Fold Iron-containing alcohol dehydrogenase.
Amino acid sequence: MWETKINPTRIFELRCKNTTYFGVGSIKKIEDILEVLKHKGIDNVIFVTGKNSYKVSGAWDVIEPALNTLGFKYSLYDKVGPNPTVDMVDEAAKFGRETGAKAVIGIGGGSPIDTAKSVAVLLEYTDKNARELYELKFTPEKAAPIIAINLTHGTGTEVDRFAVATIPEKNYKPAIAYECLYPMYAIDDPALMIKLDKKQTIAVTIDALNHVTEAATTLVTSPYSILLAKEAVRLIVRYLPVAVNDPENLVARYYLLYASAIAGISFDNGLLHLTHALEHPLSAVKPEIAHGLGLGAILPAVVKTIYPAVAEVLADIYSPIVPGLKGLPAEAEYVAKKVEEWLFNVGCTQKLSDFGFTKDDVPTLVKLAKTTPSLDGLLSIAPVEATETVIAKIYEESLNPIS
């Protein structure tokens, strides 16, 4: 296969809406990025991250000396957890204002980088708060410069305009998407990801798989989104088992990261629909659920639901998972079973009942999917009409493995 002919240590620029430095060792590009900021008169930044990953990954070993060499002032907000809340955003934004930060650098996976994007907005809109941002009470047109240093191969947030945060008292987990949320620069260095454990490796990669499944099948998809989806699925199927069994395999990390990035670009163009709209209520109600594993629990039922409407597309992009499909609506149940079988084989084995949900929870989940700000937009571009009945059936069929 041609992948073996690519040198993972050769850093290239992945150009989409922003510039992403991609490849082993690209964390060293942070000095170049800081020099660009300094040339723009910015020498005071806030880092938004989790408690440990920015150090464990090795990223901080390169970043801190660069900051000192260039004489940057910086503050560090390291309290971002999985499924971040609007309270975390507000706390970080307050800290950034107090310390005079003029740019925001997110270090981590989707949670820290999405939080960093939100903080960047609130540094510009000092009279607003995160609840107003995520309840869509204003439309931001500007944000402080955003730099994304990515530590997982899943969300694609480093290359797109999306961010997510939970409003805990309402069990809302909205998604926002604005032009001002694109990072100025991003770093995708697979060497920073070799410390991801097995569960994280699986969860983040299944997130990327869902991104392309949805992006390729929305009502607003394009050949570009479908092309990227097909390649992302191929790479995920080939390299996820390798990374699970050999976590320090840089070739596997490289291609899973590349799959994640192009999946991010795919859904930045094609958008998302049912799987994400239905997962957000799950991890809003139970924040301990890893987003990717929640998606994996409901993906087979979503595939079964949408396949008759988009059979030709899914037959094509899913050929590495389910070879020999003809793209006929009658294949829907067979494809759903084979997708679940593949998920189980790579270690994504939990269903909704394993997370503690029962049939009694379905009406609440349906209501959240229908009423959470922004999710109506995703549901409106699903390839089938997302009625309450359809949504309820997906949740119910996801409680346990397909029989």
User: Anything to note?
Assistant: The chain is about 50% helix and 10% strand.
